[in-house]
Amino acid sequence: MSGKLRTPLLWGVCLGLGFGMVSHSGNSRPSIHPELYQCYLEPSSASTPDAATARVSDDATGTAALRSAREAAQQCRSGWCDRETRIRLKDSLSTYLAHRRNVTSALFQERGADGLAEAAQRFSSDDDLKLSKDLAVLYAKGWPGFEDLKQERAALALVLTKPASAFRPCVIQSKSTRARSTVAPYVY
Length: 188
Fold this sequence. Notes:
Layout: H1 2-25, H2 51-78, H3 83-111, H4 113-122, H5 126-140, H6 153-161
Helix pairs in contact: 2-3, 2-5, 3-4
């Protein structure tokens, strides 16, 4: 009799585990830990402009993208986040992060550590800091995700979890520049 009781129990356990695995398979998000990012890599298709070009585009592109991202993030944070607002947030956030990367990279190439300090100061305005806070709240609620901004994944991670001074390009060691240090974009 004990053999007859074990078989249905065993089948029940197997079915329960199977249903549990199926129900969780569609809900899994990538396990990315933004707090572990140390720097951003330049996308291979993008070319970094010189510092003068980056400064000229700062007023036009960066300010407009920052303003649009802030407005959309505030709407989403208040609960009015429809499809159009999410698209606007995604687009303006991508533009803002790409602009911030370009300006920071250009200043770093031009003046090294002093350029990074200037970029940190430039991107520490009240609007920049408020956008970071709004994005952190939205990220805690599940959006924006890192798959939404694949090109800007590292930049988004830095904005979410680090101060402006930590937003810096990864320095890759090459044969011609042995003096530069190597920084991994992500620590596992």
